[in-house]
From TrEMBL:
Span of domain Kinesin motor: 3-328
Protein name (Swiss-Prot/TrEMBL): Kinesin-like protein
Superkingdom, natural source: Eukaryota
Binding site for ATP: G81, Q82, T83, G84, A85, G86, K87, T88
Length: 360
């Protein structure tokens, strides 16, 4: 049984945040901090403060998940928090290519870590890595590696779990190639932002890696899915004074983040009987994260926070979300795709499941 790794990261005060407002956090030790003049105490798996290195976050939160994913155990890494709290900085860094080594974010480190581990295992298995990248905006799933594709449908397959129908999956053989495709995806995301006149903080972005492993000795093919998600901002619409379409966007984001919260609540409510309905279908986000939330994935959540008292209520809601997620229990297992000997899928899979059942 594995638990979700939940960490908080407080970024430095921004130039817009008034120093006179004061800071809302005081660290006690590596896991515990007090919040808002000692009103609340939080204990998470690890707390990172303004001087924390990007590498420290990768080592603690992501590296164990990458290692497992190379061994065919699914993994999910999510950044959560209000707009401007440091989600994208943590995920990408100032840029995913050609940025200062120490500023590099989780995504390039994950890619490099994954290929490092693959290259040290090539004598026991042959690996195939495929990459997809999608954005969820206004409950539509856009393929960021091919903008000509329409709304991508989500389906479920008994052996492979949640799948995105027809999504572009590019094979990548090393980290340079992977990072190039990710840059293309990010450039496409920026094009969409301009075309739709929206900000990237109003959409969720998911980076999906499938790592297939053809074992030399065991004659088996296994595959792990590794998903990184940079979520849209979690702030409430009323504070931002949004109106018109921006308000509609904010409502859609709030709905999908509430759906995520509701799924987590249902999973952690204690009554984990089969009758307990888990509302994965309430949003595209929860559908895409169904495997991760439902237990067949290791999961890490980075709660990104402003340290300023002026953002304390958003930070409190981010931390409460994280505390709730800490109680999700998972039993991820290595996924066998097919027997290399026969090249057939396991016999328990029906034709329907092989094609993947379209659920919406
Ligand atoms: P979000 O994605 O949550 O909306 P960003 O990651 O874009 O927020 O961060 C907002 C701003 O704060 C950016 O200018 C970013 O460079 C800066 N920032 C965020 N976290 C850090 C950090 N840990 N160290 C330095 N600058 C940061
Ligand atoms: Mg962002």
């Amino acid at each position: 049984m594995s638990k979700v790794t939940v960490c908080a990261r407080f970024r430095p005060l921004s130039s817009k945040e008034n120093k006179d407002d004061g800071v809302c956090v005081r660290g006690i030790d590596a896991e515990t901090f007090v919040f808002q003049d000692d009103e609340f105490t939080f204990t998470l798996d690890r707390v990172f403060y303004q001087d924390s290195a990007q590498s420290a976050i990768f080592d603690f939160l992501a590296l164990p998940i990458v290692t497992d994913a190379v061994n065919a155990i699914n993994g999910t890494i999510i950044t959560y928090g209000q707009t401007g709290a440091g989600k994208t900085y943590s995920m990408e860094g100032p840029g995913i290519q050609d940025c200062d080594e120490h500023k590099k974010g989780l995504l390039p480190r994950v890619v490099e870590g994954m290929f490092d581990q693959i290259s040290s295992s090539i004598d026991i298995a042959r690996y195939t890595v495929k990459l997809s990248m999608v954005e969820i905006y206004m409950e539509k799933v856009r393929d960021l590696l091919d903008l000509s594709k329409g709304n991508i449908q989500i389906k479920e397959n008994k052996t492979q779990g949640i799948l995105l129908t027809g999504v572009t999956e590019v094979p990548v053989s090393d980290s340079t190639e992977a990072l190039q495709h990710l840059c293309t995806g990010l450039a496409n995301r920026a094009v969409g932002e301009t075309q739709m006149n929206m900000s990237s903080s109003r959409s969720h972005c998911a980076y999906l890696f499938t790592i297939q492993q053809d074992s030399v000795n065991e004659k088996r093919v296994k595959a792990g899915k590794l998903i990184l998600v940079d979520l849209a901002g979690s702030e409430k619409a009323d504070k931002t004074g949004a109106e018109g379409r921006v308000l509609e966007e904010a409502k859609t984001i709030n709905k999908s983040l509430s759906a995520l919260g509701n799924v987590i609540n249902a999973l952690t409510s204690g009554s984990s009987s089969k009758a307990n309905h888990i509302p994965y279908r309430d949003s595209k986000l929860t559908r895409i994260l169904q495997d991760a939330l439902g237990g067949n994935s290791r999961m890490a959540l980075l709660c990104c926070c402003s340290p300023s008292n002026s953002n304390a209520s958003e930070t409190l809601s981010t931390l409460r979300f994280g505390m709730r997620a800490k109680h999700i229990k998972a039993s991820p297992r290595a996924s066998e795709v097919k027997s290399a000997k026969t090249q057939e899928e396991p016999s328990s899979v029906t034709e329907d499941e092989k094609c993947g059942r379209i659920l919406e």
